[in-house]
User: What shape does this take?
Amino acid sequence: MIEKSIHEINNRIKDGSVNVVTAEEMVDIVAELGVEDATREVDVVTTGTFGAMCSSGVWLNFGHSEPPIKMSKVWLNNVEAYSGVAAVDAFIGAGQLSDTEGMGYGGAHVIEDLVRGRSVDLHATAYGTDSYPRKVLDTTINIYDLNQAIMLNPRNAYQKYNAATNGTSRTIYTYMGSLLPNYGNVTYSGAGVLSPLSNDPTYQTIGTGTRIFLGGAQGYIVGEGTQHSPQNDFATLMLKGDLKEMSSKYIRAANFHAYGTSLYVGMGIPIPVINEKVALSTAVTDDDIVTNVLDYGIPSRDRPPLRTVTYGELRSGMIELNGKEVPTSSMSSFKTARKIAEELKDWIQNGEFFVTAPVEHLPSQTACNPMKQTGTSPLVDDIMSKNVVIIEQTASFHQAAKMIMDNAYDHLPVVSENNELVGIVTAWDISKAVARDEHNLVKDIMTKKVMTANPDDPVEVAARTLDKNSVSAMPVINANRNVIGIITSDDISKLLARRV
Amino acid sequence: MMLKINISSDVVVNPILAESIIETGGLLNISQAHFDSTHGEVIADIDKDHFKAIKNALTAKGAQVIVLDYPIVRDEEECIECGACISVCHVNVFSFSRDWSLEMDTDKCIQCGTCIKMCPHNALTLEH
Assistant: This one.
């Protein structure tokens, strides 16, 4: 059994004899030399990743104004930062949107502007106290004017991430990008073979205090990240670093259409090869890392996996889904991940970066639990009309008109012979048929593309579907597409009226 | 060459695409077609030799032919080469090279704009 101490490895970094390779290179080295010789041969394995990490932000200290202010609210380029701490400290979060520009500009853009040395408008308000009399402040600052700009990211560097697709009939816009209808594409994130946590999944060398590459500078691991979920290989890290030393090559703002802003963070962890177990874990390949493909069309936190998939399959550009070849897209940049692993390797080889032993190991038993919700949210089943009038598709247009008149309903779900929903007829469809003098069967005049709800959908989800499609009613169907009710915008208004 | 063929409602009932193809022998390769009650819009590829003939034939039958020569433009400073654009492009403009750099074959671009919304870094634009 070969053992190397951190001290020994750092001495080799000091005298220039250290052997550093990237996690990609390590795969072949272990395959060629075997684990034992690879452990002897290689001292440090570098990793890297560059992807969207929404849970990122920066603590800023502006220095005291004259007269002093105890900021209760603060904005940077119209993006609100959190200042519920001492007088002139604030945390700017990547996902906070501009009050004036919406999704086009957010906290992530403020952070990138700061990194690039650009000027940023600072606006602050306060209630005024004896020692902090000022109530309003407006000034312009850049990163050099700040006492501190400390990046502190609560959740970064996911070990791996679910791949995303969309089973609905329309394009949806998510933090995993545009997902085309009918499983038209699959997106994924993560550096696979170079993924930092996948190269040391039992945290033998990674923990609190580990020195890392963060945004082009040296940073540190604070500890486990939020939602750290080691038991299903979804470990995360909380990271810190000095924004003043970072580079816009590795800190970049992003906008996800109709979703919001996020920050692309470049980070990498050096893994000291202290024993054979570590050497073996750094030989992980894309084909060894397995994740799930989830349908993001399901508006719930519980999305059953459609299939499992390896990063090797995802990175090939196509995967099979429901018997069809579907193109894949990476949302993170492998090219930049590689650059980070290479740059970190250079730093270590040049004696500019020393490896560390963790002060504390990361927890390996914690779980990421769902939210406890005390108020129950009403479901479609609770408020839908159950005595719904339906019509067969072979009925005449006159029968439909008469049914709408007799029942004072605006919408008639249309069903096939075996009672499955096939369309919907509205008073508007009838008027259109009359105006055009087309006295056909219901199936000729009905709208075939009909939005539907499930009885156990939360009302919020149904309301969003109605709103997005500009319709005022939807049939509620069961798994066999039988119509079991109808939900209208009226039902939802009544629910809200009752609550108020 | 990529063409956009606009067909107004008064001629949409006539098989003008088929007629023009038969008349000129130009093999229009249709990649996108949208029709509604007010107009039709077809995106199609044609080889250079047949462009003039097919354009004249279509125009004579009441269509409007526009050459799509302003394909998607990538801002290389903003682009981080993630490859998000690859899977949303039906005509495969984007691909990775061996070293995971993003490559573009803009001759294929039909200027649909889908990739613009996909790009997390606002690196893609259509200048027209």
